Amino acid sequence: MMTELFKREFNALWHSPWQLALISYIPLIGVLALWWLFSAGLPRQLPVAVVDVDNSQISRMLTRQLAANAVIAPQSYANEAQAVEAMRQTQVYAMVVLPYQLKKDLLTGQQPTIDIRYNSQFLLVGKLLSSQLQLSLAEGLTQIGQQRLLLNGANKATVDVSLSPITNQTTALFNRNNNYVGFLVPPILIALWQLLSMLVFINSLNQELVLYQNRYYFPKQIWALIATKILFYSPIMLLHGGFILLWLYHYLGLPAAGALVDLTLAQLAMLMALWLMVLVIFTGMRDSARSVSFCTALFAPAFAFMGITFPVNDMPLLAQWWRLIMPSSHYIDSHVSVISYGVKLPHVLGQISGYWGFLLLLPFIVFFANKAKDVPKTDLTSSDVNQEVS
């Protein structure tokens, strides 16, 4: 029985170009393309508007200080209104306004205000520019402060202590070079892998819908068909998940503190939870177009809910609930634990046990499937029913 069903599934796959593409070259192209987009590691030469109202020697020195930073590419604007408009049109990602009489205020001991603005819609770019702009301007202003103290007769040995009595050093524990490949690419690829796995499974399930009198039904052997599809497609998608791990942590050589085989178990648990989510939607809707659309809308924003670029606790309550039903959000906790902290298998198994909530979907799947399992004319095959309707 199962052998025949596997042959049937293989034949259906072989005669479906789209399904073949989803399990073969589309995941590979997607993985390589996303890696290539972030392969530079760090953003460089990000355009920043500079409005120099003071037009003094000090303001020009600060502009040169900004240009010396590899992340910043300063662009001069005549006034603040033009710079704001350039930000709105995303021609620049940030702006710096050097105020009038900046030189005079600095030399006379006043505290002028340098206006720094950045586009927070570009979350990572905005944070990066905010820190780099402040760092570059602080270095330039420190030089001015040193000159002023020396001119006032301060001892050269005490100048640095006077300007910076406390020195801060920030060290990224698991990303020492602040490389965006190791930080962003793994969760992005996991989100892509989840989306492709969903499409593969839902497309396979949609092939089993039987149309009769403008309603869709399931064949009698729907449970055997579902089991066959799970056993057939799970190893295929796990191969793609394993390729992602090998590509990132062996070929590219990104640091990994733990064993990748532990992550394979976490990926398997994630797939099983994903299959349950897809089955609930498929059995509940019984419509190919609606099922694909709903699943895509549900899983497309997976990366945003992983908590990598935005703290989970700061998300709105609805977003936190949405995150709980996203299998990739549960997997990424295991991924970070293994890659960054090097946790062992018992800890990973404890995290995998957190998927138990997805088992609560089984009664709904059984209810929906049994409700639509019997075609009114059970002696007709799927093709016969479709022919009769046509």
From TrEMBL:
This is ABC transporter. The lineage of its organism: Bacteria, Pseudomonadati, Pseudomonadota, Gammaproteobacteria, Alteromonadales. It comes from Shewanella litoralis. Its main location: membrane. Gene3D superfamilies: abc type-2 transporter like domain. It is found in: Cell membrane. The chain crosses the membrane at residues 20-38, 180-202, 222-250, 256-282, 294-312, 352-369. Pfam families: ABC2_membrane_3 (PF12698). Residues 18-368 form the ABC-2 type transporter transmembrane domain. Keywords: Cell membrane, Membrane, Transmembrane, Transmembrane helix. Signal peptide: none annotated. It is a multi-pass membrane protein.
